[in-house]
Amino acid sequence: MEYIKNRFYEKASKCIAEYNKLKKEHGDKVVGEVTIGQVMTGMKGVPSLITDTSKLDPNEGIRFRGYTIPELREKLPRLQEDGEPLPEGLFYLLLIGELPEREDVLNISKDWATRAYVPQHVFDVIDALPKNSKPMTQFSAAILSMATESIFQKAYRAGVNKKYYWDTTYEDVMNLIARLPRIAAYIYRRNFHNGEHIEPDPRLDWAGNLAHMMGHDSNEVKRLLRLYMVIHSDHEGGNVSAHTSHLVGSALSNPYYAYSAGMLGLAGPLHGYANQDVIHWIFEMLNELDTKTPTNEQVAEYVQKTLAQGRVVPGYGHAVLRVTDPRFTAQKAFAEKYIHDNHLVNVVNQLYEVVPPILGSVGKIKNPWPNVDAYSGSLLYSYGIKEYTFYTVLFGVSRALGVLASLVMDRLYGLPIERPSSFELSWYKDKAAEK
Ligand code: CMX
Known about the structure:
- It is a single chain.
- The chain has helices spanning 2-25, 36-40, 69-75, 87-96, 102-115, 120-128, 135-145, 151-157, 165-192, 206-214, 219-231, 240-250, 255-266, 274-289, 296-308, 326-338, 343-362, 373-382, 391-413, 425-433, and strands spanning 54-57, 61-64.
- 61% of the residues lie in helices and 2% in strands.
- By secondary structure, the protein is an all-alpha fold.
- It has a domain at 274-382: CATH 1.10.230.10.
- Strands 1-2 form a two-stranded antiparallel sheet.
- The chain binds carboxymethyldethia coenzyme *A.
């Protein structure tokens, strides 16, 4: 499948010249300023990263290489006319910056199927962890243990010229993405199906194979997972999982190290873990109210109670977005088309009515609207994937598409080690006192 790599190089190498020109000729150009408020609220809005794969507009949501989610659902190749786009096509778009032909997408499917072999020691590492270690601990550890396979690391040790770093990074990235469904499914079957594992079927597409290996082999689940993998794949460069992977990668750590680290960021409750927290929180609510069909008043009271306890309402709010997340809207549209009268989906829709006005009235919450995690769990659950402590692993399989495509770009540009400055609190106090 060399032609995908060649096509990437052909397209992306033009960007190297642009990158070098900007660096050389416009290095002194001021592109923003940093306030003490930004330093104290997580550096939001400070331009400091280069990420070509996607861009997040606060009032519109994500665009992948310029395309919105509805545009991609229409334009990316699918297996069936009424199906969802294949994540392989999205990866092509993120990496190369152009919409793929159907042939390209099928070729990536085949390429990943041939790269999907997971060495035995990775399964041994998973099996050595206690059963009660979280699925994300197992996922990150498994990825880390695969660093034995890093082609980039071997080439680096052998003294390869830095202008070729991107090439071996590409190979690692393709191998890693290809293997993630097998690892995720292994953890799922280990934890929730007595370790009765299911072998991959190389004829299936990447997401379809994941559904198959998890033991949810219906066309409906495959369709859902294809959508899931597309919409969770990338969210520009500053989110915790993307930024962590980029940061670790900037030390020329191999892609396995970088992505394993990124997954530990995704495992945090303010980021990807929210997708399981949402379901947990809804079940806590229904349990406490002792009903599957609460009234709006009951839900509102429970939301107020959560806030009064100093907890966050999971699935709501965002560091950048200021509107309903289009990834939420895409999943809602999917549910409206395919799911009829499911009580969990109904509660999620009810929360969409009840929660935003309450969060909006708090005053300090910048975005009262739902994010991607508010919907995803209810879809998985209603399709029979009920083990919600596993859900963040699915997010992690998908996020590889964007983050690792970016890592190849990082190496092609030759981005340097990342090293922002830190100062004592007194330095900021002195700055604040300056006229
Ligand atoms: N419920 C309660 N309080 C919330 C809130 C929510 N859903 N969202 C924000 N707030 C609070 C913050 O905790 C913060 O409180 P303090 O000032 O007391 O510390 C205040 O409102 C201001 O926060 P913000 O600027 O609006 O939001 P941040 O950029 O700091 O945080 C996020 C963004 C997503 C972490 C936050 O909205 C949140 O915790 N949401 C719930 C968890 C969640 O759904 N995370 C998933 C995000 C998507 C993803 O990455 O997967």
